[in-house]
């Protein structure tokens, strides 16, 4: 049961990574099977230390620093960026476009998305920071200091891209400080689901298919 549980979770994680890469580099979509095999082999070799005699300590370190603070912080940022910055109204319209109907009961979902989810997840993240205790090798024995430093480095690698990219976009955006802040926290007007009209417009406006809408050359997106 644990094997199948880990296996189906790995499918979703691997597909997430592949989708991100293919959205950024659309021309790689034709090589999805090769990318899947290559990424699977890389992950296999990266996971080998976890089955060594010290693998239990490595897994404990990864679990404490890679799947605790990081997940809660990223989830909080996702809720805030999608539901507060992008806007819950736009989010509901996108869902209605995909499902063909408005999610019901709408009031319940609005409460969960706008208030419950970001506040509860953010509260859990703050609680974990306040009540932080270094991970233990066994009862009463904490991980050595160098191991904790490695753990915090892992957490930093996961979390740093969020503020760094925000600062990068803020710096390259023209205008005054308030104008920059408004621009970087406002969704692009041309962003949204790939309707037929948008696909046809992209075909007439771009000669290089790689510069068109990211889903344009994906056969699954042809409506």
Please describe the structure with a list of short key phrases separated by commas or semicolons:
223 residues, 8 helices, 2% strand, two-stranded antiparallel sheet, mainly alpha, single chain, 2 domains
Description:
Helix content is 69%, strand content 2%. The model is unreliable at 202-223 (pLDDT under 50). The protein has two domains: 1-51; 55-185, no CATH class. Helix 3 (55-99) packs antiparallel against helix 4 and helix 3 (55-99) packs parallel to helix 5. It is globular. The relative contact order is 0.09. It starts with a helix and ends in an 18-residue tail after the last helix. It has helices spanning 2-24, 32-47, 55-99, 106-130, 145-159, 161-172, 177-184, 196-205, and strands spanning 136-138, 141-142. With 223 residues, it is mostly helical. The chain is built from eight helices and two strands, in the order H-H-H-H-E-E-H-H-H-H. A two-stranded antiparallel sheet has the order 1-2. The chain crosses the membrane at residues 36-59, 65-87, 108-129, 149-172. Belongs to the sodium:neurotransmitter symporter (SNF) (TC 2.A.22) family. Its main location: membrane.
């Amino acid at each position: 049961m644990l094997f199948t549980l880990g296996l189906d979770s790995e499918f979703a994680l691997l597909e997430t990574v592949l989708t991100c890469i293919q959205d950024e580099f659309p021309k790689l979509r034709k090589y999805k099977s090769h990318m899947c095999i290559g990424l699977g082999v890389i992950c296999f070799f990266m996971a080998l230390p976890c089955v060594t005699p010290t693998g239990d300590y490595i897994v404990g370190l990864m679990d404490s620093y890679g799947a605790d603070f990081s997940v809660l912080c990223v989830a909080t940022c996702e809720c805030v960026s999608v539901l507060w910055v992008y806007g819950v109204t736009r989010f509901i319209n996108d869902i209605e476009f995909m499902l063909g109907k408005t999610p019901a009961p709408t009031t319940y979902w609005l409460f969960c998305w706008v208030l419950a989810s970001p506040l509860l997840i953010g509260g859990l993240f703050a609680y974990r920071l306040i009540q932080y205790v270094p991970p233990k090798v066994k009862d009463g024995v904490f991980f050595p200091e160098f191991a904790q430093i490695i753990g915090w480095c892992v957490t930093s690698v996961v979390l740093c891209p969020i503020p760094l990219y925000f600062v990068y976009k803020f710096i390259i955006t023209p205008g005054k400080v308030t104008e920059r802040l408004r621009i970087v926290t406002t969704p692009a007007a041309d962003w949204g689901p790939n309707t037929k009209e948008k696909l046809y417009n992209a075909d007439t406006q771009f000669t290089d298919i790689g510069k068109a809408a990211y889903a344009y050359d994906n056969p699954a997106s042809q409506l």
